[in-house]
Design goal:
Protein name: YihY/virulence factor BrkB family protein
Oligomer: single chain
Number of helices: 12
Subcellular location: Cell membrane
Number of domains: 1
InterPro entries: Virul_fac_BrkB (IPR017039)
Strand order of the largest sheet: 1-2
Structural class: mainly alpha
Membrane topology: Multi-pass membrane protein
Strand content: under 5%
Helix content: over 70%
Organism: Streptomyces morookaense (Streptoverticillium morookaense)
């Protein structure tokens, strides 16, 4: 295979940023990291939804709560939130605290996996302070999610208003606008996840490109998994396993997509004239936040 490594096409390929990202993912054993994120995310999903439903029921009106429920259901294929919101009032203070702790632990797992992509050591410091930091990150993640959902709802409503008042056929326009609004919402979310969670300051251009790749990829995954649920998982022959398997697949692919985007921000392209990526210390690839 030495002839292949000397081929000019192969040489140019190994100088691309995408190839360097692949090498980074291979070096950090990203399949193991994705498995860790998938397991912890699946365990934390329902407790986080329960806490979110309780907070929503306490702060929002019934109409606003139903609208948010509809948008969250659209974000997670196969997840129906009616039973969570209907019983949100039964979540007590102690139960809510325990459920919130599950979410905080999930943030910690996700943070360490993203730091592993940057080849950084585990975040040092006092355990209690780290938990408080993870709680703040979780609250920030929720705030960013609300802002992104608001942007998506505003964009969709604006297009609907234009279609209604101009008489233009809105079928394709609404579909495209809905997709673009969802990509914008996911873009804001990815910016937060890729920078704040691992505690680094990546190159802004790489961060923007990675967030855009993640946002578009996330929407494509939702479309594919929704089609799977309608065509395969909903069949009676799969019984009760269809939806959980679909959720696991969705979480697994999302975890791998997130790790790939993190590697895009953490990797420097190979220098011109070199076919291999030089080892770069974390400080050379990005700046860590304090």
């Amino acid at each position: 295979m030495n002839w292949l490594t000397r081929h000019p096409v192969y040489t140019r390929l190994t100088r691309t940023h995408a190839w360097c990202v692949y090498e980074t993912l291979t070096r950090v054993k990203w399949n193991r990291l994705a498995a860790t994120i998938t397991f912890s995310s699946f365990l934390a999903l329902f407790p986080l939804v329960t806490v979110g439903a309780a907070v929503t029921a306490a702060l929002l009106s019934e109409r606003q709560s139903q609208e948010l429920q509809k948008r969250l259901t659209a974000q997670v294929p196969g997840l129906h939130l009616g039973s969570f919101t209907d019983n949100a009032g039964t979540v007590g203070l102690i139960a809510g605290a325990l459920l919130l702790l599950t979410g905080i632990n999930w943030v910690g797992q996700l943070r360490e996996c993203l730091r592993a992509v940057w080849e950084l050591e585990e975040d040092p410091g006092n355990v209690v302070l780290l938990k408080l930091k993870d709680a703040a990150v979780l609250l920030g993640l929720g705030a960013v999610a609300l802002v992104s959902f608001g942007c998506s709802a505003f964009a969709t409503a604006a297009v609907d208003w234009v279609v209604k008042h101009t008489g233009v056929g809105g079928g394709v326009l609404l579909t495209v606008a809905g997709f673009c609004a969802a990509v914008l919402a996911d873009f804001l979310m990815m910016l937060y996840v890729l920078s704040r969670l691992p505690g680094v300051h990546p190159d802004r251009r790489n961060l923007a490109v990675a967030a855009l790749i993640g946002a578009v990829g996330f929407e494509v995954l939702k479309i594919v998994l929704s089609s799977y649920l309608r065509g395969v998982a909903a069949k009676s022959m799969y019984g009760a396993f269809g939806t959980p398997v679909a959720l696991l697949l969705w979480i697994s692919f999302t975890a791998k997509l997130t790790l790939a985007c993190a590697a895009w921000t953490a990797t420097r392209s190979a220098p011109k004239g070199r076919g291999e990526l030089r080892e770069q210390p974390p400080s050379a690839r990005g700046r860590r936040t304090t």
